[in-house]
Amino acid sequence: MKTAPVSPPKLRELTARMARLGVREEDLEERFVLGSGRGGQKVNKTASCVMLRHGPSGIEVRCGAERSQALNRFLARRRLCERLEARIAGARDARAAEAARERRRKARRSRRQKARMVAEKRLHGRKKEARRTPEIEP
Questions:
Q1: For 8, what's the count of Cα atoms within 13 Å in the CB-facing half-sphere?
Q2: Residue 137 pLDDT > 90, yes or no?
Q3: Is-contact 80 61, C-beta < 8 A?
Q4: How remote is the C-alpha of 52 from its chain's centroid?
């Protein structure tokens, strides 16, 4: 990444975060497009908006929050890391929920719980029995 108007500690933190997530600069496809919104003619005439696409994950990020292209590059990379972390956390939560659901399904019921369940089934059967039409004998 080229020099950015970002402090060196923040830049080091971002590169460490990208390395921890496995994001390499070679995997990023970077395009610069015309910005829009507030900022006047300067923003509308220059290609300061950054579009990043991470090849392996397919995540696309667009950042045109600032007038500076270099600052937008930094912010876009940070936003990409946030999205990747959210995706990883979501997958982890889904796996944990599935494991908990499976544990509950396989858990053995206590004797009292089984007796109550059987009693409820009998009661339900009696209710259904009462709904039947009576048979007429010839």
A1: 0
A2: no
A3: yes
A4: 18
Is the distance from CB of 17 to CB of 80 less than 8 angstroms?
A: no
pLDDT at 3: 53
Confidence of residue 109 (pLDDT cuts 50, 70, 90): confident
Using alpha carbons only, what angle is made at residue 136 by residues 132 and 138, rounded to the nearest 5 degrees?
Answer: 160
Q: Is the dihedral of CA 12, 13, 18, 21 positive or negative?
A: positive
Is 36 a residue whose pLDDT tops 70?
yes
Q: pTM value?
A: 0.65
Contacts of 117 (CB under 8 A, 6+ apart): 109
Query: What are 107's two structure tokens?
Result: 């858990």
- Domains observed in the chain: 8-98 (3.30.160.20)
- Report how far apart the first and last C-alpha atoms of the chain are (Å, whole number): 94
The CA distance from 50 to 61, in Å, is 8
